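TL;DR need structure tokens for one chain.
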Amino acid sequence: MDESHLKQRVIFVKMLNLPAYIGICFSITTLFCLLLFFKASNFNKGVIAVVITWTILQGAIAFTGFYSNTNVLPPRFLFAILPAVIAIGTLFITSGGKRFINTLELKWLTLLHLVRVPVELVLFWLFLNHTLPKVMTFEGWNLDFISGILALFVYYFGYVTKKLGAGILLILNLVGLCLLINIVTLAVLSTPFPFQKFGFEQPNIAVFYFPFIWLPTVVVPLVFFSHLVCIRQIILRIKK
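>> reply
TL;DR here they are.
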């Protein structure tokens, strides 16, 4: 067995030995994220079927260790992220996709950002268990928890009492989007790919495995999509 495969075997064993509460907490967080998104779509059966199928599929693939091999080209991880990127892009450029976007309820998409708080806790626990670098946590350069903390504030004052104007809501969503892009960039550059820039001693390998594969394939895409939908609907409201 060569050195690279030996390293992957060690990583795999390490992942299997993670404390159970980390995986359980993240699984519950993912479920909460899905429920809020389904609520925002008024429990659209088509949406539920597609998203649940995608979630189960990615979980099953990651469970086999498929994504843990980073020595192949093209990177296997492309199969995890490209479909979601293509799906989001399609929704924003097609007439049917735009009609669907216009039916989504912003208050529930805003509450969805609450998941960013427990996600930060999970990332910190994963750092303590040597499966991602410190730079990806709130002790490093990750400030994404701010969006999670503000979610209840924005929900209440923006959509319950409606004391926040469209301009403020737009700015808050843009800030939240920037915070998300920041941690996604850190995560990508901390992953053991040829372009890795951070975390060489403790790279970001947790996302290759079940259930943490749901972070880049389910949670992050839904959070990203939620911001884009809110931004689009708010801009349309301002233009009226």
